[in-house]
Amino acid sequence: MAFGFLIVRRLLPLVRLFGRLPAPFSRTFAAALNAATRPFHVINYLGSVGGALVFHGPRLTRQFDRTIDLLHRRLDGESQAALDRRMHFPVGWDPFFRDTMTLEQVYTYGAQHYDFHRAQLTIDQS
């Protein structure tokens, strides 16, 4: 769960920046990232493995708590105009990325990411 919210922290500045620029800028950026989808998946896997070695137990809990606190404070300070800013995303990178996403949708990404992986790991007991 923590890693999905850490991703949100990294995405917010991108949406704030590209959300102020004309759409072709973020469309080009997303297309470049989509072209690198294969290497991204390898790097994403290795980063997840490495991250789990570095952040676990109490250290992961502290990092998660700091991240949630920071995201909560930032969300509280966002105007509706800021939450409505959008940018194009590399849809090949993640099942929850849409062609365009608003800042508000990016804030919800961490919970969606968690729910998805939780469902993958839950044994149906019906």
Automatic annotation (TrEMBL):
<dbReference type="InterPro" id="IPR034660">
    <property type="entry name" value="DinB/YfiT-like"/>
</dbReference>
<dbReference type="Pfam" id="PF12867">
    <property type="entry name" value="DinB_2"/>
</dbReference>
<protein>
    <recommendedName>
        <fullName>DinB-like domain-containing protein</fullName>
    </recommendedName>
</protein>
<feature type="domain" description="DinB-like">
    <location>
        <begin position="55"/>
        <end position="121"/>
    </location>
</feature>
<dbReference type="InterPro" id="IPR024775">
    <property type="entry name" value="DinB-like"/>
</dbReference>
